Amino acid sequence: MARPIFIIILCTVFDEAVGKHIYIPQKMKWLDAQAYCRSRYIDLSFVSSQSDQDQIEEASGTTPEKWIGLYLDPNDKVWKWSGGGVMTYENWANNQPDNGRNGTETKALIWPDGKWNDANEDSVLPFYCFTIDIDLVKMSWEGALEYCKKTNTSLISLNSEPEHLLIQTVVQNHRSDRVWIGLRYLGARWLWVNGEPLEYQAWPGQDHQCPAMNRCGALTKDRLWETRDCLEENHFICE
Questions:
Q1: Where in the chain is the domain with CATH 3.10.100.10?
Q2: Is 52 exposed, middle or buried (0-12, 13-18, 19+ CB in 10 A)?
Q3: Where's the C-type lectin domain (predicted)?
């Protein structure tokens, strides 16, 4: 009688400025890796800032090249992220991307030194998945902030379109209509809880510019930010 064979996939989790990157050592083609991440986590990992790049580079170590969620859109020939949004930060190696092999290198990988290179999507490589969770409890904005601090994190800041779109995927699959994010109106302007200005914005109109009462920010299922009463209890996302 043949013995059953069990295959165990070991995953390594690395804390990220927003959410977590999970290193999957199993080797797959880019599209298969994308499907794997979407079925078990959220999507292939993205890099939209130097902070993201530093985290990915630290996690990479000396391991072989790995897929990230960057691809060349065949329609407009623009590099975009699998979870949504165009590439605004880049860390290509010298003379890359070169779209070699007769124009078939339309996906991006990251080398052990952190540099990016375009590659054929049929290459079989390990990869990174991105994930994040919505806390199950409901709290006021301040309560949510204190809750996150107890876990050495903070309410989430969405500083780019890729971050916003990936987090939106989680919100749309959650039972709540909205979740607290790290937006607060202080000193006559909206700021992220970490003090950073709003480089990327998703307000539906102009009502947020001078709020009389609702001075805390939430992300809705409609992919928009909205002003809410800070004492209102909502689910929330810690970074």
A1: 21-130, 135-236
A2: buried
A3: 21-130, 125-239
Instruction: Please give the model's pTM, rounded to 2 decimal places.
Output: 0.73
* H or E stretch covering 76: none
Q: What is the DSSP letter of 208?
A: G
What is the percent of the chain with per-residue pLDDT over 70, rounded to a whole number? 89
Tell me the pairing of strands 107-110 and 116-119: antiparallel
DSSP state of 19: S
Quick: pLDDT tens for 131-152. 887 777 899 999 999 999 888 7
Share of the chain above pLDDT 90, in %: 43
CA distances from 82 to 8, 18, 63, 161, 238 (A): 26, 16, 23, 12, 23
Assign a CATH topology to domain 21-130. Mannose-Binding Protein A; Chain A (3.10.100)
Residue 186, token pair as written in the block: 């202080």
Give the span between the Cα atoms of 220 and 105, in whole angstroms.
37
Residue type, 128: Y
pLDDT of 196 higher than 70: yes
Q: Regarding the domain delimited by 135-236, which CATH topology (the fold level of the hierarchy) does it fall under?
A: Mannose-Binding Protein A; Chain A (3.10.100)
User: 22 and 15 in contact (C-beta within 8 Å)?
Assistant: no
